[in-house]
Design brief:
Blueprint: E1 5-11, H1 18-26, E2 33-39, H2 46-56, E3 60-64, H3 73-83, E4 88-91, E5 97-98, H4 102-112, E6 118-126, H5 143-151, E7 162-165, H6 166-171, H7 183-194, E8 198-209, H8 214-217, H9 221-243, H10 252-271, H11 275-291, H12 297-310, H13 321-328
Parallel strand pairs: 1-2, 1-4, 2-3, 6-8
Antiparallel strand pairs: 4-7, 5-8, 6-7
Helix pairs in contact: 5-7, 5-10, 7-9, 9-10, 9-11, 11-12, 12-13
């Protein structure tokens, strides 16, 4: 019997594109799937459209996020997992598309790689219509390099890229519901560290819809505030990951070094530019880095000097304090 694949889709006011997304699921050449939709409080026609698809095909299953659970896609995805009956899990956003052979290809690859806990495939970005002619892209496949990139906040793969064995995914504790930024990075890091083996393939089998306002979203103070809070949550998660990491393939010292470099970059481009707003957050981050031995004595001195002495004056124009701090963080 073919293994069952659970496709989990969080929805929130997704009526503009969700039909195309669900049609891409319906068009799969592989038939043994269930699609678990978890609505996160939509106020448009998302629920009505989802009900129509559920009535059309009982493999679609509509759920609503319970009110006692946090709002957000991470919570909705985890709730979807709690209802999933599949052997394998895929997470799909409500505006993205699967290639028609996506599930067939992924299940076939798992049959050839039964010793893997999860497999990763590639995406192609699009605005209006996907370019179906592109079949493969160049990839990073070295696990340590992938880990370094994720810890440094470079997204090697998006949420839909992996297909997980369900029993392995449960060991990761799923998506961090306290994070609404960097949650996919956090899950990727946990998955790599906890996995005995995973494989990355060049083949493109899903399509990520670009938001026209993508860049603008990340320059607002509200979004930057969320980013700083979630960066702190990512640090706390890495501490937990390292406390439970006994696999020799991933050395905790490397994780610490990668994250310190990530913090330096994040500080220069996000915190320093908004030093008044994020001064207390930065104090917490530097304290945590020192408390959990991420810093050698020289680096700790530089960070504390910048944070406690210089940062309060960084916003004074013409003072040159920002330039001094940037040199300390190089």
């Amino acid at each position: 019997m073919q293994p069952l694949v659970s496709i989990i889709i969080p929805t929130f006011n997704s009526s503009k594109h969700i039909k195309a997304t669900l049609n891409s699921v319906l068009s799969q050449t592989y038939s043994n799937w269930e699609c678990i939709l978890v609505d996160d409080g939509s106020e448009d026609l998302t629920e009505t459209i989802s009900v129509n698809y559920q009535e059309k095909d009982n493999r679609f299953k509509l759920n609503k996020r319970p009110e006692d659970l946090p709002k957000g896609p991470s919570s909705a995805r985890n709730y979807g997992v709690s209802h999933a009956k599949g052997d394998y899990l895929i997470f799909l956003d409500a505006d993205d598309l699967l290639a028609t052979t996506c599930l067939e290809n992924r299940v076939a690859r798992f049959k050839q790689n039964q010793n893997c806990d999860f497999l990763v495939f590639q995406m192609e970005r699009f605005l209006n219509e996907p370019d179906f002619s592109k079949k493969e892209i160049d990839i990073v496949s070295n696990p340590n390099e992938i880990l370094r990139l994720f810890v440094n906040l470079h997204c090697v793969w998006q949420t839909t890229a992996p297909i997980y064995k369900k029993n392995f995914f449960l060991k990761t504790n799923g998506f961090n519901e306290s994070m609404n930024v960097f949650e996919d990075y956090e899950l990727a890091i946990k998955s790599m560290v906890k996995s005995n083996k995973f494989s990355v393939f060049q083949s493109i089998d899903y399509y990520y819809r670009n938001d026209l306002n993508y860049k603008e979203k990340y320059i607002s103070t509200e979004v930057k505030t969320r980013m700083v809070k979630c960066f702190t949550e990512l640090l706390l998660s890495l501490v937990t990951v390292m406390q439970h990491n006994e696999e020799s393939a991933f050395i905790n010292k490397d994780i610490k070094d990668y994250f310190v470099q990530s913090y330096k970059t994040f500080f220069r481009f996000t915190i320093l530019e908004n030093s008044r707003a994020f001064q207390e957050d930065n104090k917490k981050i530097v304290h945590l880095l020192a408390a959990h031995a991420f810093l050698d004595s020289k680096t700790a001195f530089k960070f504390f000097l910048a944070d406690r002495v210089l940062l309060p004056f960084a916003s004074i124009k013409g003072s040159g304090v920002s330039r001094i701090i940037k040199k300390l963080y190089n």
